[in-house]
Amino acid sequence: MTPVGMGRGVRVGGIGGLGLVAVLLISMFLGVDPSLILNSIPMDGGGGVEPAAVPRTQQPRRPGEDQQVEFVSAVLAQTEDTWSATFQEIGRTYQEPQLVVFEGAVQSACGMAGSATGPFYCPADRKLYLDLSFFDELERRFGASGDFAQAYVIAHEVGHHVQNLLGVMDEVDRLRRQLDRAQANQLSVMTELQADCFAGVWARRTHQSQQILEEGDIEEGLTAASAVGDDRIQAATRGYVVPDAFTHGSSEQRMRWFRQGLERGTVEACDTFNAGRL
Length: 278
What we know:
Elements: E1 10-12, H1 35-38, H2 65-89, E2 98-102, E3 105-108, E4 111-114, E5 120-122, E6 127-131, H3 133-140, H4 147-166, H5 168-176, H6 181-210, H7 217-227, H8 230-237, H9 251-264
Parallel strand pairs: 1-2, 2-6
Antiparallel strand pairs: 3-4, 5-6
Helix pairs in contact: 2-4, 4-6, 4-7, 5-6, 6-9, 7-9
């Protein structure tokens, strides 16, 4: 893909060090709120490791890190332009999020989170958090490589910000308190699939205005969506699949809803909550 412009809300920061806790590998999905995971882990007996407060500027740069920061900044700028125009069409004002690039661990308004949590969006401070090493993990462990695969990750997290602005996340949070675990997991799946769909909306509308897509980009995005499907992760980590434990959707669902947004290009097309079949 061909990124254009620089994001207005990228900040390189956070805390370096060892990370916070050994979070379940499943949390490496593109999560909404790491506090939901972290708060469920007993903290008595020193369950977490306090990260060292090493300023980011004192840590050695990873090879290609500057270029990666520039890339995520450019993609964020594209999401800002596209969603600002989309919100204007529906009579709303888009409030741009901030993306925090960190290494090791970071303090957010949703709590402390380590790299193992994966990229996440915190609705409490309206910030996206990304450890660039996740892109290496995405390629090495899940076989999803390429610029557009990385752009999909960012666009998915921005999709959660869009949900937050539209009031979806508040409603989901309210409903989750009334549901049992299996039902709450299903609601989480609907939320994640909508963010996938919003990532597809971004890709379509940004390409229409800026011609960003190149040959092979869509395949990269679909590969990334498939790589982080619950069934694929569970099969790799457990050796078997438990659909009731899905929180983000199967590989097929994630690819289908990303393609739905890509083909339709509208917010209305991403109503996963009222879809007859996810």
